[in-house]
Amino acid sequence: MDRDTRNALLDGPALDRLGAVADLDPALLVTDFAAADPARLRDTEVLLTGWGCPPLTEEALSLLPALRAVVHTAGTVKGLMTEAAWRRGLHVTSAAEANARPVAEYTVAAIVFANKRVLATSRAYREARGQLSPLALYPGIGNYRRTIGVIGASRIGRRVIELLRSYESHVLVHDPYLAPEEAAALGVEPVPLDELMGRSDVVTVHAPQTPETRHLLDGARLALMRDGATLVNTARGSLVDTRALTAELVSGRLHAVLDVTEPDVLPPGSPLYELPNVLLTPHIAGSLGNELGRLAASATEELERYARGLPFAHAVHPGTLAHSA
Predict the structure, then answer these.
(1) 138 in helix, strand or coil?
(2) Number of H helices, E strands in the chain
(3) 5 — phi, psi (to 5°)?
(4) Cα separation of 194 and 202, whole Å?
(5) CA atoms within 13 Å, Cβ hemisphere of 24
(6) pTM greater than 0.85
(7) pLDDT, tens digit (0-9, with 9 covering 90-100), for 29-68
(8) How many CB atoms lie within 10 A of CB 119?
(9) Helix %, strand %, coil % for the chain, to 5?
């Protein structure tokens, strides 16, 4: 992992817990396998990886003949695990389950604020600096029995569904891999994507980034959304056609909460920075600050399982990556 990640993720107690289960050298930080001391890599059985870890290429693997497992302290392993690494038969786990929690919490907060028109009302109050009637401005505000459309019954999507139960929402879900019995167990209504777009007060995106999901929400699908509806995207920017969404937002027809965009950093001239119906954040929904402790704890628990000869609780298998993050 990179140095900033290591410093933020692994404090003294986290290193002590790791050191209790593994032969650990806290001073050893690898950011480039080719530049690392080969003698330090030769006996490595487990890699503890994170943001900034270089890919496990054939060349890197040749320096790690004893490698048997990868414990990833972040979400997706797609940028880390190559075909060569999967062929090695490595046991792989990630902290995606732990990282799903703050993303889901951010998403639900965005949904609640969107339905209460918090940003717009706050702006109107600031401008009025006096008595204000939110109901006169937004007659339909509120979260009771709102229809929420969840695109992707992923880890995060399922966590969002779970958190929404206390809001008495009606939840629609579109996910081609969600079986009817799973939908029933989740208490959601499975629907085609176009129907979800047209019926939802808020649409929230939790599908993975794959070639098939690029611009999943294009101009035609965005046009299906109700006037005044909100799009929340905490997944990947590429799932939404930015140009088409910008046109809808500039017109004022839709609202948006965007934690990710395409490109990752919008050009300075993008109207999305200034529009009153847009909340734009720089990819903060995932684990940050003290939430990183949850990722470190998850990774350590997996390493403890490995040391006891147990399978990983959150194992990652190559066959699932085509339709997951």
Answers:
(1) coil
(2) 14, 10
(3) -65, -45
(4) 14
(5) 15
(6) yes
(7) 999 999 999 999 999 999 999 999 999 999 999 999 999 9
(8) 16
(9) 45, 15, 45
